[in-house]
Amino acid sequence: MKMLEAQFLGIDVMLDNYPPPLPKHLLSKVVPVFQFGVIGIMMASE
After folding, report:
1. CA nearest 13: which of 28, 27, 1?
2. What are the distances in angstroms from CA 46 to CA 4, 19, 34, 39, 41?
3. DSSP code of residue 16
4. pLDDT tens digit string along 2-46?
5. Residue 35 contacts residue 29 (beta carbons within 8 Å)
6. Rounded distance, CA 45 to CA 4, Å?
7. The whole model's pTM is what?
8. 8-35: string of b/e by CB count within 10 Å (b at 16+)?
9. Which of 10, 24, 27, 38 is an S-S bond match for 20, by CB 3.0 to 4.6 Å?
10. What does the CA dihedral 39, 26, 15, 6 come to, rounded to 10 degrees?
11. Angle subtended at Cα 15 by Cα 9 and Cα 16, rounded to the nearest 5 degrees
């Protein structure tokens, strides 16, 4: 955090999005599994 402030003078770093809200956190866990599942089904059907 201090490194960012030193490199970019006058910047206000706000960490309001961390930790992410529960729906976004769950979505970030489910989406990759769903994507791999769809790709796996497509590859298996050929």
Report:
1. 1
2. 49, 41, 19, 11, 9
3. T
4. 666 667 776 666 666 667 778 888 888 999 999 999 999 999 987
5. no
6. 49
7. 0.48
8. eeeeeeeeeeeeeeeeeeeeeeeeeeee
9. 24
10. -30
11. 135
